[in-house]
Design brief:
2 copies of one chain form a homodimer. By secondary structure, chain A is α/β, with parallel strands linked by helices. The first copy, chain A, has 2 domains: about 110 residues, Cobalt-precorrin-4 Transmethylase, domain 1, CATH 3.40.1010.10; about 150 residues, Tetrapyrrole methylase, C-terminal domain (Methyltransferase, Cobalt-precorrin-4 Transmethylase, Domain 2, 2-Layer Sandwich), CATH 3.30.950.10. Chain A is about 30% helix and about 15% strand. Chain A has 12 helices and 11 strands. In chain A, the strands form 2 sheets. A 5-stranded parallel beta sheet of chain A has the order 4-3-5-2-6, sandwiched between helices. A 5-stranded mixed beta sheet of chain A has the order 7-8-11-9-10, sandwiched between helices. The relative contact order of chain A is 0.12.
């Protein structure tokens, strides 16, 4: 038995002393919608959706989230659609400025978090330049929350004290030449790559050339946190070929590192669907921990 | 005029077709509470709070969030309090197992995200080993969402295609010897350090030794996203001394990189409080962008 939203709404807290942030006409909220699952939206984002006159959203925002907009609010799709070219970033920013100047409460709704490879900083700079008041409403970034839904912790004390997030796209849509892949490979036992599917082969080769083992575990996740979520477990050397063979399509998250092994125990979504854990000690560290803490 | 929670609750969406995740007696939800502001809680986390019989929470979870627990739910503080030593991680995990075996819906509520330096993976492994069904509910990590509230984007297209998150603590509370600070310094133009205040001087020296400029911008943020938020803008060479002089106390977030300059334009919280932006072009890239896109 799961609870429908209308059943829980009346039981939402009458939070003493908590004021929701003000959203005045002429203001813009740069808001993250999270990785997909509507339950990963924040309360502030929901509040913004209920207040906004106009919602300017990316292609990746789930329709169920958009259905929560205030009745009568205008929904504007800003991303790529069908075969049409994506509007230029500057055009999107100018559009936000126009809508705000016309006296609308404008919710700019982006997948994930607006400040994690989301170009939120560019839009915010455009708003400041135009004198438009704005707020940033952070969202769950797919590289953290999406991977959690796949049963993969981006940090784990026995694996890593650092994690690097990197984009596989640069300004021109190429594998970024400005990324020092050798340093990235050495810096963090765990590397999360956003938008890396197109150049996965090159990226993996660069990381192996920098000293990462070809056998190192890799997971590729599509539709993270949604019922259609797919997770491919592979290795650095075979990732590109395996992804192609499995028909994994972008957008996808790619994570490189031993924490991928933890999925053998921590695939909670699979376990809730009846699959037993494949291992209770996927890192082989249990005996070691007992000695250290005992 | 800000809206009180009771005013928005009746207008919450009757989301057609959206089922909230089931939370059965005997189950544990490992849940992130976000950086502080109760509005940054996710809908799933709020749902869990309203369903749970027991809430086992860290010291950093805001009391206003805890006030949203179901009336009659038991609140258990699991973190450090006053002079008492922090319970061992294994003891916390065993406690979660006991509470679940006794037939409770157990919400384990942690500041930030459970899988970003939150030891959620360890707790989850303990639950799997004990056969306790669990779910992970991601939260906004303070290194992303807390910095957004300080007006600092962790990524910005003109600054970085990669960002590294690193903890200043290791298993024994020392500056982690397992982190290759030289590689971290080289890998990412932007480095976010969690729990790094105690060893800030050493960490900054290591990064400078690895080639980062002493003049590189640094921000130190405490109480991120709360009304008591403080932000100190400094530089790598002077960060430790400036933090001490300013009386900045842990826990704090530290961010190293040119994106800190963006705060001169993007400090939206300050601007909402009436402070004008200090710069409209903090990176000096506006003319350059116009040429590239025009």
């Amino acid at each position: 038995m799961t609870a429908k939203f209308p059943d829980i709404a009346p039981r939402l807290p009458a939070a003493e002393g908590h004021d929701w942030p003000e959203f005045r006409p002429g203001w813009v909220w740069l808001t993250g919608a999270g990785p997909g699952d509507p339950g990963l939206l924040t309360l502030n984002a929901l509040h913004g959706l209920r207040e906004a006159d106009v919602v300017v959203h990316d292609a990746l925002v789930d329709p169920r989230i958009l259905s929560w907009a205030r009745p009568g609010a205008r929904l504007i799709h800003s991303g790529k659609r069908g075969g049409k070219a994506s509007p230029k970033q500057r055009d999107i920013t100018l559009h936000l400025v126009e809508l705000a100047r016309a006296g609308n409460r404008v919710l700019r709704l982006k997948g994930g978090d607006p400040f994690v490879f989301g170009r939120g900083g560019e839009e915010a700079l455009g708003l400041v330049e135009a004198g438009i008041p704005f707020r940033v409403v952070p969202g769950i970034s797919s590289g953290v929350g999406g991977l959690a839904h796949a049963g993969i912790p981006v940090t784990h004390r026995d694996v890593n004290q650092s994690v690097t997030f990197v984009t596989g796209h640069d300004k021109r849509g190429l594998a970024p030449v400005t990324v020092d892949w050798e340093a990235v490979a050495k810096a963090s036992p765990v590397v999360v790559i956003y938008m890396g599917m197109k150049h996965l082969g090159e990226i993996a080769a660069a990381m192996i050339a920098a000293g990462r083992a070809g056998s190192e575990p890799v997971a590729i996740v599509t539709d993270a946190s949604l019922p259609t979520q797919r997770v491919l477990e592979t290795s650095l050397a075979t990732a590109a070929a395996d992804a192609e063979a499995a028909g994994m399509q972008p957008p996808a998250l790619i994570v490189v590192g031993r924490n991928v092994l933890l999925r053998q125990a921590l695939d909670w979504a699979g376990q809730m669907a009846g699959e037993p854990p494949r291992s209770l000690d996927p890192l082989g560290t249990r005996a070691q921990d007992d000695a250290a803490e005992g």
